[in-house]
Design brief:
361 residues; mainly alpha; Rossmann fold; four-stranded parallel sheet; 4 strands; HEAT repeat domain-containing protein
Protein backbone atom coordinates (compact mmCIF):
# COMPACT_ATOMS: atom_id res chain seq x y z
CA UNK A 1 0.00 0.00 0.00
CA UNK A 2 1.49 3.34 -1.13
CA UNK A 3 0.53 6.09 1.31
CA UNK A 4 1.14 9.81 1.00
CA UNK A 5 -0.08 13.08 -0.46
CA UNK A 6 -1.35 13.47 -4.02
CA UNK A 7 2.18 14.12 -5.27
CA UNK A 8 3.06 10.46 -4.67
CA UNK A 9 1.73 9.93 -8.19
CA UNK A 10 5.27 10.97 -9.23
CA UNK A 11 6.59 7.67 -7.85
CA UNK A 12 3.50 5.56 -8.48
CA UNK A 13 4.81 3.84 -11.63
CA UNK A 14 8.06 2.82 -9.91
CA UNK A 15 6.05 1.62 -6.93
CA UNK A 16 3.81 -0.55 -9.13
CA UNK A 17 6.75 -2.08 -11.03
CA UNK A 18 8.75 -2.83 -7.89
CA UNK A 19 5.84 -4.39 -6.02
CA UNK A 20 4.93 -6.46 -9.08
CA UNK A 21 8.54 -7.70 -9.27
CA UNK A 22 8.09 -9.01 -5.70
CA UNK A 23 4.89 -10.79 -6.75
CA UNK A 24 2.71 -8.36 -4.81
CA UNK A 25 -0.45 -6.42 -5.68
CA UNK A 26 0.13 -2.64 -5.49
CA UNK A 27 -2.51 -0.48 -3.79
CA UNK A 28 -2.71 3.31 -4.13
CA UNK A 29 -5.61 5.71 -3.74
CA UNK A 30 -4.71 7.48 -7.00
CA UNK A 31 -5.66 4.44 -9.08
CA UNK A 32 -8.66 3.56 -6.89
CA UNK A 33 -7.19 0.45 -5.25
CA UNK A 34 -8.45 1.23 -1.77
CA UNK A 35 -11.06 -0.43 0.43
CA UNK A 36 -14.17 1.69 0.66
CA UNK A 37 -17.93 1.63 1.19
CA UNK A 38 -20.06 4.36 -0.37
CA UNK A 39 -22.89 5.41 1.94
CA UNK A 40 -24.39 8.41 3.68
CA UNK A 41 -21.78 7.98 6.42
CA UNK A 42 -18.76 7.42 4.17
CA UNK A 43 -15.48 8.61 5.65
CA UNK A 44 -12.10 8.75 3.90
CA UNK A 45 -10.21 8.19 7.13
CA UNK A 46 -12.24 5.05 7.90
CA UNK A 47 -11.55 3.82 4.36
CA UNK A 48 -7.83 4.41 4.88
CA UNK A 49 -7.82 2.57 8.21
CA UNK A 50 -9.65 -0.37 6.62
CA UNK A 51 -7.11 -0.53 3.78
CA UNK A 52 -4.18 -0.48 6.19
CA UNK A 53 -5.73 -3.43 8.01
CA UNK A 54 -5.81 -5.42 4.75
CA UNK A 55 -2.37 -4.42 3.45
CA UNK A 56 0.66 -6.65 3.98
CA UNK A 57 3.16 -3.78 3.92
CA UNK A 58 2.58 -0.02 4.07
CA UNK A 59 4.98 2.33 2.25
CA UNK A 60 4.68 5.88 3.57
CA UNK A 61 6.22 8.37 1.16
CA UNK A 62 6.99 12.09 1.39
CA UNK A 63 7.78 13.63 -1.99
CA UNK A 64 7.25 17.31 -1.20
CA UNK A 65 3.81 17.59 0.35
CA UNK A 66 2.41 16.14 3.56
CA UNK A 67 -0.75 14.01 3.34
CA UNK A 68 -3.07 14.76 6.26
CA UNK A 69 -4.76 11.34 6.26
CA UNK A 70 -1.47 9.49 5.83
CA UNK A 71 0.30 11.03 8.82
CA UNK A 72 -2.78 11.65 10.93
CA UNK A 73 -4.54 8.32 10.43
CA UNK A 74 -2.69 5.67 8.42
CA UNK A 75 0.60 5.69 10.35
CA UNK A 76 -1.25 5.32 13.65
CA UNK A 77 -3.41 2.53 12.21
CA UNK A 78 -0.30 0.68 11.00
CA UNK A 79 1.43 1.01 14.37
CA UNK A 80 -1.62 -0.19 16.29
CA UNK A 81 -2.12 -3.14 13.92
CA UNK A 82 1.56 -4.12 14.05
CA UNK A 83 1.88 -3.79 10.28
CA UNK A 84 5.37 -3.76 8.77
CA UNK A 85 5.97 -0.44 7.05
CA UNK A 86 8.59 1.78 5.45
CA UNK A 87 9.01 5.56 5.51
CA UNK A 88 10.67 7.00 2.40
CA UNK A 89 11.39 10.70 1.82
CA UNK A 90 12.68 12.41 -1.32
CA UNK A 91 16.33 13.41 -0.78
CA UNK A 92 15.88 17.11 -1.59
CA UNK A 93 12.85 17.33 0.71
CA UNK A 94 14.71 15.60 3.53
CA UNK A 95 17.72 17.91 3.15
CA UNK A 96 15.38 20.89 3.27
CA UNK A 97 13.91 19.54 6.50
CA UNK A 98 17.37 19.11 8.05
CA UNK A 99 18.23 22.76 7.33
CA UNK A 100 14.92 24.02 8.76
CA UNK A 101 15.09 21.71 11.76
CA UNK A 102 18.52 23.11 12.65
CA UNK A 103 17.40 26.70 12.07
CA UNK A 104 14.20 26.38 14.10
CA UNK A 105 15.27 24.24 17.01
CA UNK A 106 12.64 23.97 19.76
CA UNK A 107 11.44 26.06 21.48
CA UNK A 108 11.77 28.33 18.44
CA UNK A 109 8.38 28.92 16.79
CA UNK A 110 7.57 27.70 13.27
CA UNK A 111 4.81 30.30 12.80
CA UNK A 112 6.90 32.36 10.39
CA UNK A 113 7.00 29.47 7.90
CA UNK A 114 4.30 28.96 5.31
CA UNK A 115 1.84 26.17 6.10
CA UNK A 116 3.26 23.47 3.82
CA UNK A 117 6.80 23.97 5.10
CA UNK A 118 5.58 24.07 8.69
CA UNK A 119 3.74 20.77 8.17
CA UNK A 120 6.88 19.22 6.66
CA UNK A 121 9.05 20.11 9.67
CA UNK A 122 6.37 19.11 12.18
CA UNK A 123 5.71 15.76 10.50
CA UNK A 124 9.35 14.73 10.10
CA UNK A 125 10.05 15.76 13.70
CA UNK A 126 7.19 13.54 14.80
CA UNK A 127 8.51 10.66 12.69
CA UNK A 128 12.13 10.84 13.79
CA UNK A 129 12.08 12.47 17.22
CA UNK A 130 8.71 11.57 18.76
CA UNK A 131 7.95 8.17 17.23
CA UNK A 132 11.64 7.22 16.79
CA UNK A 133 11.01 5.93 13.26
CA UNK A 134 13.57 5.88 10.46
CA UNK A 135 12.92 7.88 7.29
CA UNK A 136 14.97 6.63 4.33
CA UNK A 137 15.87 9.28 1.70
CA UNK A 138 15.67 8.45 -2.03
CA UNK A 139 17.26 10.39 -4.86
CA UNK A 140 15.68 11.57 -8.11
CA UNK A 141 14.78 8.56 -10.23
CA UNK A 142 15.94 6.21 -7.47
CA UNK A 143 12.62 5.53 -5.72
CA UNK A 144 12.18 2.05 -7.20
CA UNK A 145 15.75 1.07 -6.37
CA UNK A 146 15.43 2.34 -2.79
CA UNK A 147 12.06 0.65 -2.33
CA UNK A 148 13.44 -2.67 -3.64
CA UNK A 149 16.36 -2.51 -1.21
CA UNK A 150 14.17 -1.67 1.81
CA UNK A 151 11.54 -4.29 0.94
CA UNK A 152 14.34 -6.86 0.64
CA UNK A 153 15.37 -6.00 4.21
CA UNK A 154 11.81 -6.62 5.39
CA UNK A 155 11.75 -9.98 3.63
CA UNK A 156 15.07 -10.90 5.24
CA UNK A 157 13.63 -10.07 8.66
CA UNK A 158 10.50 -12.08 7.86
CA UNK A 159 12.56 -15.11 6.86
CA UNK A 160 14.52 -14.80 10.10
CA UNK A 161 11.24 -14.77 12.02
CA UNK A 162 10.11 -17.92 10.19
CA UNK A 163 13.40 -19.61 11.06
CA UNK A 164 12.98 -18.62 14.71
CA UNK A 165 9.39 -19.89 14.74
CA UNK A 166 10.46 -23.23 13.28
CA UNK A 167 13.30 -23.53 15.81
CA UNK A 168 10.87 -22.87 18.66
CA UNK A 169 8.49 -25.53 17.43
CA UNK A 170 11.32 -28.03 17.15
CA UNK A 171 12.30 -27.79 20.83
CA UNK A 172 8.78 -27.85 22.31
CA UNK A 173 8.80 -31.68 22.63
CA UNK A 174 12.18 -31.47 24.43
CA UNK A 175 11.03 -29.10 27.16
CA UNK A 176 9.59 -31.97 29.17
CA UNK A 177 13.11 -33.46 29.36
CA UNK A 178 15.34 -30.44 30.16
CA UNK A 179 18.51 -32.54 30.39
CA UNK A 180 18.38 -33.01 26.62
CA UNK A 181 18.43 -29.28 25.87
CA UNK A 182 21.62 -27.89 24.34
CA UNK A 183 22.94 -24.39 25.11
CA UNK A 184 21.30 -23.14 21.91
CA UNK A 185 18.04 -24.86 22.87
CA UNK A 186 18.11 -23.11 26.25
CA UNK A 187 18.49 -19.73 24.53
CA UNK A 188 15.45 -20.57 22.43
CA UNK A 189 13.55 -21.68 25.53
CA UNK A 190 14.30 -18.33 27.12
CA UNK A 191 13.03 -16.54 24.02
CA UNK A 192 9.80 -18.54 24.26
CA UNK A 193 9.41 -17.78 27.96
CA UNK A 194 9.75 -14.00 27.66
CA UNK A 195 7.65 -13.63 24.49
CA UNK A 196 4.32 -12.07 25.53
CA UNK A 197 2.78 -13.15 22.21
CA UNK A 198 3.77 -16.79 22.60
CA UNK A 199 1.32 -19.51 23.68
CA UNK A 200 0.93 -19.50 27.47
CA UNK A 201 1.42 -23.25 27.89
CA UNK A 202 4.59 -23.16 25.79
CA UNK A 203 5.92 -20.30 27.93
CA UNK A 204 5.21 -22.25 31.13
CA UNK A 205 6.91 -25.38 29.76
CA UNK A 206 9.95 -23.28 28.84
CA UNK A 207 9.97 -21.75 32.33
CA UNK A 208 9.95 -25.16 33.99
CA UNK A 209 12.82 -26.33 31.79
CA UNK A 210 14.86 -23.19 32.51
CA UNK A 211 14.26 -23.64 36.24
CA UNK A 212 15.34 -27.27 36.08
CA UNK A 213 18.58 -26.27 34.35
CA UNK A 214 19.12 -23.18 36.55
CA UNK A 215 19.58 -21.14 33.37
CA UNK A 216 18.02 -17.70 32.93
CA UNK A 217 19.46 -14.27 32.22
CA UNK A 218 18.77 -11.67 34.91
CA UNK A 219 17.18 -9.29 32.36
CA UNK A 220 14.86 -12.09 31.28
CA UNK A 221 13.97 -12.76 34.92
CA UNK A 222 12.92 -9.15 35.47
CA UNK A 223 10.87 -9.31 32.26
CA UNK A 224 9.08 -12.48 33.38
CA UNK A 225 8.35 -11.06 36.84
CA UNK A 226 6.57 -8.17 35.12
CA UNK A 227 4.74 -10.37 32.59
CA UNK A 228 1.23 -9.34 31.66
CA UNK A 229 0.23 -13.02 31.57
CA UNK A 230 -0.93 -13.85 35.09
CA UNK A 231 -0.09 -17.55 34.94
CA UNK A 232 3.45 -16.87 33.71
CA UNK A 233 4.04 -14.22 36.38
CA UNK A 234 2.77 -16.54 39.12
CA UNK A 235 4.96 -19.41 37.93
CA UNK A 236 8.01 -17.12 37.78
CA UNK A 237 7.47 -16.24 41.43
CA UNK A 238 7.01 -19.89 42.41
CA UNK A 239 10.18 -20.94 40.57
CA UNK A 240 12.23 -17.93 41.66
CA UNK A 241 14.71 -19.98 43.76
CA UNK A 242 15.57 -22.10 40.70
CA UNK A 243 15.40 -19.30 38.13
CA UNK A 244 17.69 -17.18 40.32
CA UNK A 245 20.09 -19.64 42.02
CA UNK A 246 22.56 -16.98 43.22
CA UNK A 247 23.09 -17.24 46.98
CA UNK A 248 22.90 -15.08 48.90
CA UNK A 249 20.33 -13.34 46.68
CA UNK A 250 20.72 -9.69 45.80
CA UNK A 251 18.56 -7.67 48.25
CA UNK A 252 17.67 -5.33 45.38
CA UNK A 253 16.03 -8.21 43.52
CA UNK A 254 14.02 -9.26 46.59
CA UNK A 255 12.86 -5.69 47.15
CA UNK A 256 11.93 -5.43 43.47
CA UNK A 257 9.78 -8.55 43.67
CA UNK A 258 8.05 -7.27 46.82
CA UNK A 259 7.35 -3.97 45.05
CA UNK A 260 5.79 -5.88 42.14
CA UNK A 261 3.62 -7.82 44.58
CA UNK A 262 2.50 -4.57 46.23
CA UNK A 263 1.53 -3.11 42.85
CA UNK A 264 -0.27 -6.26 41.65
CA UNK A 265 -4.04 -6.72 41.78
CA UNK A 266 -3.44 -10.49 41.87
CA UNK A 267 -3.39 -11.69 45.49
CA UNK A 268 -1.80 -14.90 44.24
CA UNK A 269 1.52 -13.08 43.73
CA UNK A 270 2.23 -12.10 47.37
CA UNK A 271 0.81 -15.39 48.65
CA UNK A 272 3.24 -17.36 46.47
CA UNK A 273 6.09 -14.97 47.15
CA UNK A 274 6.14 -15.29 50.96
CA UNK A 275 7.43 -18.88 51.33
CA UNK A 276 9.76 -18.43 48.36
CA UNK A 277 11.50 -15.42 49.89
CA UNK A 278 12.07 -17.17 53.21
CA UNK A 279 13.37 -20.32 51.51
CA UNK A 280 15.85 -18.36 49.38
CA UNK A 281 17.44 -16.57 52.35
CA UNK A 282 15.75 -16.30 55.72
CA UNK A 283 17.46 -13.13 56.91
CA UNK A 284 17.18 -11.21 53.63
CA UNK A 285 13.68 -12.59 53.08
CA UNK A 286 12.48 -11.30 56.46
CA UNK A 287 14.04 -7.92 55.69
CA UNK A 288 12.38 -7.68 52.27
CA UNK A 289 8.99 -8.93 53.51
CA UNK A 290 8.92 -6.05 55.99
CA UNK A 291 8.13 -3.95 52.88
CA UNK A 292 5.19 -6.16 51.84
CA UNK A 293 1.75 -4.63 52.15
CA UNK A 294 -0.53 -6.67 54.41
CA UNK A 295 -4.05 -5.79 53.30
CA UNK A 296 -4.80 -9.35 52.16
CA UNK A 297 -5.70 -11.63 55.09
CA UNK A 298 -4.54 -14.67 53.11
CA UNK A 299 -1.06 -13.17 52.80
CA UNK A 300 -0.94 -12.45 56.54
CA UNK A 301 -1.94 -16.02 57.33
CA UNK A 302 0.69 -17.46 54.98
CA UNK A 303 3.38 -15.20 56.36
CA UNK A 304 2.64 -16.15 59.98
CA UNK A 305 2.64 -19.87 59.23
CA UNK A 306 5.75 -19.64 57.05
CA UNK A 307 7.64 -17.80 59.77
CA UNK A 308 6.60 -20.46 62.30
CA UNK A 309 8.02 -23.19 60.06
CA UNK A 310 11.39 -21.42 60.25
CA UNK A 311 11.24 -21.00 64.05
CA UNK A 312 14.48 -22.88 64.78
CA UNK A 313 16.42 -21.00 62.10
CA UNK A 314 15.00 -17.68 63.34
CA UNK A 315 16.42 -18.43 66.80
CA UNK A 316 19.80 -19.56 65.41
CA UNK A 317 20.19 -16.42 63.28
CA UNK A 318 19.00 -14.01 65.96
CA UNK A 319 16.07 -12.73 63.93
CA UNK A 320 13.55 -12.71 66.78
CA UNK A 321 13.00 -8.96 66.82
CA UNK A 322 12.44 -8.63 63.06
CA UNK A 323 10.17 -11.69 62.97
CA UNK A 324 8.17 -10.43 65.95
CA UNK A 325 7.52 -7.19 64.10
CA UNK A 326 6.18 -9.14 61.13
CA UNK A 327 4.00 -11.33 63.33
CA UNK A 328 2.45 -8.27 64.97
CA UNK A 329 1.50 -6.99 61.52
CA UNK A 330 -0.03 -10.37 60.73
CA UNK A 331 -2.27 -10.12 63.81
CA UNK A 332 -3.82 -6.81 62.83
CA UNK A 333 -7.01 -5.98 60.91
CA UNK A 334 -8.79 -9.38 60.91
CA UNK A 335 -11.00 -11.36 63.27
CA UNK A 336 -9.56 -14.14 65.40
CA UNK A 337 -8.89 -17.52 63.79
CA UNK A 338 -6.90 -20.69 64.43
CA UNK A 339 -3.85 -19.44 62.58
CA UNK A 340 -3.85 -16.21 64.57
CA UNK A 341 -3.87 -18.19 67.81
CA UNK A 342 -0.78 -20.05 66.57
CA UNK A 343 0.74 -16.74 65.58
CA UNK A 344 0.17 -15.35 69.09
CA UNK A 345 1.74 -18.42 70.64
CA UNK A 346 4.80 -18.10 68.45
CA UNK A 347 5.07 -14.40 69.22
CA UNK A 348 4.97 -15.24 72.92
CA UNK A 349 7.73 -17.83 72.47
CA UNK A 350 9.87 -15.15 70.88
CA UNK A 351 9.64 -13.19 74.10
CA UNK A 352 8.37 -10.13 72.26
CA UNK A 353 6.76 -8.63 75.34
CA UNK A 354 3.07 -7.94 75.75
CA UNK A 355 0.94 -9.86 73.33
CA UNK A 356 -2.03 -8.20 71.65
CA UNK A 357 -5.25 -9.51 73.30
CA UNK A 358 -7.60 -11.50 71.13
CA UNK A 359 -10.92 -9.85 70.19
CA UNK A 360 -13.41 -10.48 72.98
CA UNK A 361 -10.71 -11.20 75.60
Amino acid sequence: MLCGAADTRQVQDEFVRTVADFGGVPWHFVNGTMNYINSASSDWEENSRATVQEADVCVFVIVEEIGHITWGTEVTAALLAGKPFLVLCQQSTYERYLVLNAEFRPPASLDSLEEGTRNLVTTLREIEQDRRLTAVPFGHGKFGETLRRELSKLFDIALGQMEERNRRKSILPLLSDPARLTTKDLRTAQAIAVDEWEDKQARKAALRALAARRTLDEDALYSLLASGEQGVQRMTVELLPELYPVRPPDPALLEHVVALANDSDDVGIPRRLIPVMLDMDLSKGVEALALLEMEDSGSRRRLALALERHEDAVARQGLQSAVAALLKRCLSQTAESDWKARCRAYLARLGAGAVEPAPGD
